Amino acid sequence: MFILRVIMRYRIQNVAEVRRRFRALVRQTDSPILICPNHLTMADSAILAWALGGPWWLLRNYRWVPWNVPELSNFAGVGLDRAAAWMVKCIPIVRGGPREDLSHSLAKIEHVLSRGETALIFAEGARSRTGRIQLESIAHGVGRIVSALPDCHVLCAYLRGDRQETWSTIPARGDSFYVDFELFRPDSQHTGMRRSRDFAHQVADRLVRLEEKYFAGRQ
């Protein structure tokens, strides 16, 4: 977070209000909370955690530092990196890899959530190449996680730098970030795979609404 604030000179818009809202929401429930943001840069998860909690609050409330799901080849390709990734609450995943490996990673996320931790997973699965929510890229793994945990809540979050046009590796130095979110409990009358798909679509719909709100405010 020192790198984000001091070296990269990032700034969160209305940061005090953002953190007040987040803390008020998480105090309302003891249920598992899965954070599902949009995805534009490889720094999104770190910036969002910084925006929602703040460094000192997160140190005192470590359960709210979310477990992340980075691509194995980018963050945890060798043994030492894997150990470091676990220490900073990362569960590596191979996107497009064998189904068994993906299932194993999702089971780990379900496990940490069931123990009262928080996890973050990008609903789109990969950075949007257009800079807008890509409904066709919504990963059904999000729905599977929610379906596996009774009373699981989802925090849909929209994060975007003012200078972010489409996708990039990291945001521009000195950028200022808009953050908005809503917490909800998905519900469905379906079972099995249809239930998981329904949950994933509910998450996607809320992300689209948050994105529309962002662009409406900029017109």
Features:
single chain; alpha/beta; 45% helix; 219 residues; 5-stranded mixed sheet
Explain briefly what this protein structure is.
The protein has helices spanning 2-7, 15-26, 44-53, 55-60, 72-75, 79-87, 99-114, 141-148, 192-218; strands spanning 11-12, 33-37, 118-120, 153-161, 176-184.
Strand portion: 5-15%
From the alpha-carbon coordinates, what is the Rg to the nearest angstrom? 16 Å
Strand order across the largest sheet:
1-5-4-2-3
Q: Outline, from the CA principal axes?
A: globular
Computed structural class:
alpha/beta
Q: Number of helix segments?
A: 9
| Percent range of helical residues | 40-55%
Mean pLDDT, to the nearest integer, reads 88
Main pleated-sheet profile? 5 strands, mixed
What string, H for helix and E for strand, traces the elements in order? HEHEHHHHHEHEEH
Number of strands: 5
Poorly predicted ranges: 76-80
Architecture overview:
The chain is α/β, with parallel strands linked by helices and 219 residues long. It has one domain. It has helices at residues 2-7, 15-26, 44-53, 55-60, 72-75, 79-87, 99-114, 141-148, 192-218; strands at residues 11-12, 33-37, 118-120, 153-161, 176-184. Strands 1-5-4-2-3 form a 5-stranded mixed β-sheet, sandwiched between helices. It is globular and about 45 Å long. The two termini are 31 Å apart. Residues 76-80 have low confidence and may be disordered.
